[in-house]
Design a protein that fits this description.
The complex is a heterotrimer of chains A (about 300), B (about 220) and C (about 500). Chain A is mainly α. Chain A contains eleven helices and no strands. The longest helix of chain A has about 30 residues. Chain B is an all-alpha fold. Chain B has one domain. Chain B contains seven helices and no strands. Chain C has three domains: about 130 residues; about 130 residues, no CATH class; about 220 residues, no CATH class. A two-stranded antiparallel sheet of chain C has the order 1-2. In chain C, a hairpin with a 4-residue loop joins strand 1 and strand 2. In chain C, helix 5 packs antiparallel against helix 6 and helix 7 crosses helix 11. Chain C is globular and about 70 Å long. The chains are: A mainly alpha (about 300), B mainly alpha (about 220), C mainly alpha (about 500). Chains B and C meet through helix 5, helix 6 and helix 7 of B and helix 6, helix 7, helix 10 and helix 11 of C.
């Protein structure tokens, strides 16, 4: 049915900015404030698209290209992700590697635009981002490899949309380990605490925020929108590992969407309760994710 | 039976996780609590691995392990830690990140080793013997690569835990007296080491064992 | 009367003695009591050994306690060493007691730990259950740790910590070995029926042990107990611990504790020799670690300048010699066991003299020690005699046992081992002789006090030790020959008679 094919990316595009709202609202509740409205991110993105952009004289065409490429890439990645029990639009063997590398492409262009401005501030953020991603990516891929070994499928659709109540009884502990590892990668890739503080603009804490410091107008709108979609997609991976399937399409989708919202609440809780790690300890944190993924792979392989 | 196997598997995986936490953590108090958790897991494992009947002496033994390794040893060590005024381990010979990433590879080697030996193990789980070796290796690694005396004592406790898991898995019938004797020895060892650390601290004003290097040749 | 009761007595009396030490009132009383108590226990030990020799074995408590000729022989060695050390120790701490450094609390701690270590070592010798033997070995480590830092200074605490950690890890590995050997019994476990790993039972069914598991187990046992025995390369704790401990404790360490660890290995050797496919394993291990110990000891003796560390490295060397002897067939085992007795007596004497001389000179640094013979004829002469005996000068007994080992080496065609042994002995001969000549001869430095006259017990110790060594070097009494012969048979794993040619 047609609707089953497009409901997945449609939900992604429509609901992704809500995640930021949920996280901010959770943090506000923890702090005792009323906080921003839930739909604030939508207003922000709309406002940014209506504004004009200001470009620095030191930037080149890459600076204008970067945000667009980032957005395009993320929408392409959205076509690869299954949600609930529904298969993705595009599914082929090895598409999880494409998924990881699409994000790599996005990261590459973000780093390029940051370096393109010629500011040392952004260069610093770029170097930190690249190092942490270098540590986070193996964790992600090895974790997915563990799941792929057990589900005997090399496609994201097979891994995350297949029946997994049986999977839980077989390799329950390994799945938990992979989930924990992917959660750490989630926090790192989306620049959340304890890896990065999305609120402050201090040199001490910035990784992602600093790279987009010079973007404005529609560019910044694209970047913000792409960030929300990236968070949604990684959340889908996590939900696909953890949440069992029912069989009924609508129940599965609503469960999955609900689970992603719960994940956003969890991220909000984590952000409110943890302080940002010392920069020297962030690699150690990511290596924990790596170790857990390798451990899960070992448990599945033996 | 499948439930039992799963339960043993879960306990074993928690055991592996405690080893990883020990290798990656630099706060001494956390390390002591993790070793306490290991002791509790061992007590549970003692009952799970016995595939004969559950005699009263086995329950007593498990309770003894639970109390000693899960409660009394950490209590002794935390008391020692309080006298020492230290919070963190100094930078070890092999960094935390490196040891964390190396440890699953060590686990792979231990699994291979376990498959080479044709041990008369019970039907509980094929992971028990490799995890025993892994725990022993982690204990030895802690003793060798860490610089604080307290971490060396923790490494010794982990070593003893690993040897105990190995002993429990090879399905031999050790009389209760011997097991109790071994537990008593472990208790006296921790006690003695705690007092020794106190003396080291009093005499040297630090407990970095790699600075105890006056006796040479 | 059931002779088994004797085993209980010699095991429990030291514990009682330890308890009595708690209630004594002055340091002097404690030291006197250690001497008296150990003397009584020593006599009982020798009586027990006599009973064992006359009735071949005694056992008790459904065979958990058991003694045969091998353990009885070691019991005699232990009794000798402990009695001499206690007698010596009675006066050793006099100066510190007078100055108030050695308080009642330290004295009580010393006494309690002294008796406790005696109890633990007795447990090693009387237990048939290999698990209990391990418990005894581990207990000796823990109990003697604080004997090392009787005088708490930086060096002794460092030595104590190294000793504690290295030996604890070693003994933990030995426990792994015990578990492997226990696992290897799965073929006949039904008949053991929950009694644990009894040596006598294992001996009976040794042919049924799983070969690979027994091999791995023996390897762990060797490395684990070898750590406690001071075999290189696991000897790193030995120089520190032996040099920092007070002299009576050092004498007990070198004189018996190392041999106790080797005794544990010997028990397992008699089992492994009967396991098919592993007959040569023990021989290879003994020869390898023995030669390595001799080489390492030779290297370090060359550059020593601390008297007690020198004696400690001699211990490493002689344990290496005993080890290679144990790897060379029946004659070698006989010689090695004989060497055990000689080395224990000689090394104890060496530490006694070193201790007194250290007290007289104020430090153990040999570069500051000269003219010991003139300063104190008894202790200087004792040091000279013991070091000469240690390096193997005829006609002391050590020369005879080493000669027997050479004979055994030739008989079993272990030529390379022989070459290394002789080369190491030559190097040690030259180096130690240089050290001892510097210390003993020459003009003594001017000291601000005159050493007091040696008392009768001290003279007795020195004369007795040197005398025994001389006598044994020239003549082996038939009873000793018989005892060694029976002990060697047990180690060989045979009970029938084998011709062993001596002299």
């Amino acid at each position: 049915m047609h609707i089953e094919k497009i409901i997945n990316p449609l939900l992604t595009l429509v609901l992704a900015p809500l995640l930021f709202g949920i996280i901010n609202r959770t943090k506000a509740v923890f702090a005792g404030r009323t906080g921003q409205p839930l739909l604030q991110s939508y207003y922000d993105i709309w406002k940014l698209f209506c504004k004009g952009a200001v470009y620095s004289k030191t930037t080149s065409w890459i600076f204008r290209l970067g945000p667009i490429v980032g957005f395009a890439v993320v929408v392409a990645a959205a076509t690869l992700m299954p949600l609930g029990g529904l298969p993705a639009i595009v599914a082929f063997d090895g598409d999880f590697i494409l998924f990881a590398y699409l994000f790599g492409l996005m990261r590459f262009f973000t780093v390029l635009t940051a370096l393109d401005t010629g500011s040392s501030f952004e260069g610093m953020g770029a170097s930190r981002e690249v190092m942490f991603s270098a540590l986070a990516e193996p964790a992600f891929l090895v974790g997915l490899a563990a799941i792929s070994k057990q589900t005997h499928s090399l496609s994201l659709t097979g891994m995350l949309a297949g029946p997994d109540t049986a999977l839980w009884s077989q390799i329950g502990p390994a799945l938990l380990l992979v989930a924990f590892s992917v959660f750490i990668v989630f926090l790192a890739e989306n620049s959340r605490m304890p890896v990065d503080d999305p609120n402050t603009h201090l040199e001490l804490t910035m990784i992602h925020e600093v790279m987009v410091l010079d973007n404005s107008g529609p560019d910044l709108g694209f970047i913000t929108y792409a960030a929300t979609i990236k968070m949604w997609l990684l959340g889908t991976v996590l939900v696909g590992i953890l949440v069992p399937h029912n069989g009924n399409v609508w129940i599965d989708i609503s469960t999955a969407v609900g689970a992603i919202f719960m994940l956003a609440v969890l991220v909000g809780v984590v952000e409110s309760s943890m302080a940002r790690l010392k920069l020297l300890h962030v690699p150690q944190f990511l290596l924990i994710a790596n170790a857990l993924s390798i451990l899960a792979l070992i448990l599945v392989l033996r | 039976m499948i439930f039992m196997t799963n339960l043993v598997d879960t306990v074993i995986i928690f055991l592996i996780l405690t080893n990883l936490m020990l290798l990656g953590s630099s706060r001494l108090r956390t390390c002591i609590l993790v070793v306490a958790i290991q002791g509790i897991l061992l007590g549970i494992l003692a009952i799970l691995l016995e595939d004969g009947s559950l005699g009263i002496h086995l329950i007593l033994l498990s309770a003894a392990i639970f109390c000693l390794k899960g409660i009394i040893f950490p209590f002794l060590l935390i008391r020692t830690l309080r006298d020492l005024n230290v919070q963190h381990e100094v930078e070890p010979f092999v960094g935390y990140g490196t040891s964390l990433v190396l440890s699953p590879l060590v686990l792979v080697v231990c699994i291979w080793l376990g498959s080479q030996l044709s041990l008369p193990i019970g039907a509980a789980s094929s992971l028990v013997v490799p995890v025993a070796f892994f725990t022993i290796t982690c204990g030895l690694f802690l003793i060798v690569s860490r610089k604080k005396a307290l971490t060396q004592v923790l490494g010794y406790l982990v070593l003893e835990n690993g040897i105990y898991v190995f002993g429990a898995s090879i399905a031999t019938i050790q009389p209760v007296l011997v097991e109790l004797g071994i537990l008593l020895d472990a208790f006296v060892a921790v006690f003695v080491m705690g007092i020794a650390i106190y003396h080291i601290n009093r005499e040297f004003d630090h407990t970095d064992v790699d600075r105890l290097n006056k006796l040479k040749g | 009367m059931n002779p088994g009761i004797l085993l209980w007595i010699i095991l429990l009396l030291p514990v009682v003695g330890s308890g009595i030490c708690q209630i004594l009132r002055s340091p002097k009383n404690v030291m006197n009591f250690t001497c008296f108590g150990v003397a009584v226990i020593g006599i009982l030990d020798i009586v027990t050994a006599g009973v064992v020799f006359s009735s071949n074995t005694i056992s008790s408590c459904s065979e958990w306690l058991y003694m045969d000729a091998l353990s009885a022989y070691h019991l005699i060695v232990m009794a000798l060493v402990f009695c001499m050390s206690s007698l010596y120790g009675m006066r050793y701490f006099d100066k510190e007691i007078n100055e108030g450094i050695f308080t009642l609390k330290s004295a009580k701690r010393y006494g309690i730990l002294w008796f406790a270590s005696l109890a633990a070592m007795t447990l090693i010798l009387v237990s048939n259950n290999l698990g209990m033997m391990w418990v005894g070995m581990e207990t000796t480590t823990l109990v003697t740790a604080f004997l090392i830092c009787t005088r708490a200074n930086k060096a002794s605490i460092e030595g104590m910590w190294k000793y504690l950690i290295v030996c604890s890890v070693g003994i933990a590995l030995a426990f792994m070995g015990t578990l492997f050997i226990a696992a290897a019994t799965y073929k006949f476990q039904g008949s053991i029926s929950g009694n644990g790993v009894l040596w006598t039972q294992l001996k009976m069914h040794a042919g049924l042990l799983d070969a690979k598991l027994a091999q791995i187990g023996f390897l762990f046992i060797f490395v684990g107990y070898g750590t406690k025995a001071g075999l290189a390369p696991m000897h790193t704790w030995l120089p520190d611990a032996h040099s920092q401990a007070p002299s009576p404790v050092s004498a007990v360490f070198s004189g018996f504790m190392l041999n106790a660890a080797l005794y544990c290995i010997m028990r397992y050797t008699s089992l492994i020799k009967l396991v098919p496919g592993n007959e040569n394993l023990s021989r290879d291990l003994f020869l390898f670690f023995g030669t390595l110990s001799i080489v390492v000891a030779a290297a370090f003796i060359l550059s020593q300048h601390d008297l007690k560390r020198l004696l400690a490295y001699h211990s490493v060397e002689h344990l290496g010699i005993i080890a290679i002897g144990l790897g060379m067939g029946p004659l070698g085992i006989f010689a090695a066991l004989f060497h055990t007795l000689n080395h224990s007596i000689c090394k104890s004497l060496g530490f006694f003299c070193a201790g007194r001389l250290g007290q007289i000179y104020g430090s153990y640094d040999m570069r500051g020690m000269t003219g010991a013979l003139r300063l104190s004829p008894l202790w200087g002469g004792g040091l000279l005699g013991s070091l000469l005996a240690l390096i193997g000068i005829a006609p002391f007994a050590l020369f005879m046992s080493e000669l027997l080992i050479v004979k055994a080496a030739i008989a079993t065609n272990s030529i390379w081992v022989l070459v290394v042994f002789l080369a190491g002995s030559c190097i040690i001969f030259a180096a130690a002789l240089k050290h001892v000549i510097n210390v003993v001869y020459g003009t003594p430095p001017v000291l601000d006090f005159k050493p007091r006259r040696s008392s009768i017990p001290d003279t007795g110790i020195v004369v007795f030790s040197l005398g025994v060594l001389l006598v044994l070097g020239l003549w082996m009494p038939n009873s000793l020959h018989e005892i060694l012969y029976r002990a060697a048979n047990i180690m060989e794993g045979i009970d029938a008679a084998t011709t062993v040619c001596v002299k």
